[in-house]
Amino acid sequence: MSIVPSYLPLLPPATRPVTRDVVTFGEALVLFLAEPGVPLRAAATFRRSVTGAELNLAVGVSRLGHRVGWFGRIGDDAHGQLIRRVLKSEDVDTSRIVIDDEAPTGLIIRDCHPGRPIDVCYARTGSAGSRLGPDDLDLGYLADCRILSVTGVTAAISATAFAAAFRAVRAAREAGVTVLFDPNIRHKLGQIEVQLDRMRQLCQAADIVLAGEDEATAISGLSGQDRLGEWFLGQGARLAVVKRGARGAWATDGHQTWQQPALRVTVADPVGAGDAFAAGFVSAALRGASADQALQEAAAVGALDVAVAGDIEGLPTPAERDRFLTGADSVGR
């Protein structure tokens, strides 16, 4: 790929005022997190929090100083009330949430280890979140933002949720909203080939694809940086970002490729790193950052998040992000 030295913004210039910078939607879950270091099979003490790929991103972007909206279906129960309370406390707009009085809010129960596989149990079959459908969309709300962020989790939880996601990304593109798609493959959520087929369809409607390396290979059937980048750009994206965990990340627009090493941190809980990375990248893009700066900020936000147990507890403020990037905050390094 040839190198283009000129600075290219990650987002097109804003042509109209919008109410929110980012809108995202999907299934929010209540998280029961075992005491750090204790295997799930032996855990007796749990801390209750909230999670969900889209919720994590919404909180992360809001905490970094942007206007964010999240919606989805949640149960008319104590867990749904917790989700709304947390989102409101994080200044995330919840005005389009649908309260479902016929289905419960989904749950996730897991343990927390920095150096061994995480054991996860879901209680989300038939949940309120899985009942999301196209009729739950407010197309005007989707159009009233700069970025619509969608993940493959929404595509995986049910056929109706996938239909909602597909309609949302098409409507956003038609309205001139930048669509960011993060696959977030979840093997426990159904047949992998069904998930991959749905994700390929969403890739074709995305402006920016932000995927893990294994996910990118599974979706495209290819491997290698150049081939992966060409495939995602060939589907219609103008930017492909690939996360490589401890090996960092890279991005390409087909003309220039940017590399970002992982930032060292003492890991307390590896879950949520990808959502935090996406939040950091989105924040940088909204502020007009270059791709290399966006990758660096994304890596910093991801590192700070995994230094704390829980999916949203370690998401930083702008001051915390900047202090970490300048080396003033070691976070156990």
What's this model, at a glance?
This protein has helices at about 55-65, 80-90, 140-145, 150-155, 160-175, 190-205, 215-220, 225-235, 275-285, 290-305, 320-325, and strands at about 20-25, 30-35, 45-50, 70, 75, 90-95, 100, 105-110, 120-125, 145-150, 180, 210, 240-245, 250, 255-260. It has about 325 residues and is α/β, with parallel strands linked by helices.
CATH level-1 class:
Alpha Beta
Number of domains: 1
Q: How many strands appear in the DSSP assignment?
A: 15
User: Which class do the helix and strand fractions yield?
Assistant: alpha/beta
Average residue-wise pLDDT: 94
- The first-to-last residue Cα distance is 35 Å
CATH topology: UDP-N-acetylmuramoyl-L-alanine:D-glutamate ligase
Low-confidence stretches: 1-7
The CATH superfamily name is: Ribokinase
Largest sheet: 9 strands, mixed
Radius of gyration: 19 Å
CATH architecture name: 3-Layer(aba) Sandwich
Task: Please give the count of helices.
Answer: 11
Strand content: 15-25%
Order of helices and strands: EEEHEEHEEEEHEHHEHEHHEEEHHH
Task: Give the strand line-up of the largest sheet.
Answer: 6-4-1-10-11-12-13-14-15
What form results from the Cα inertia axes?
A: globular
Which percent range fits the helix content? 25-40%
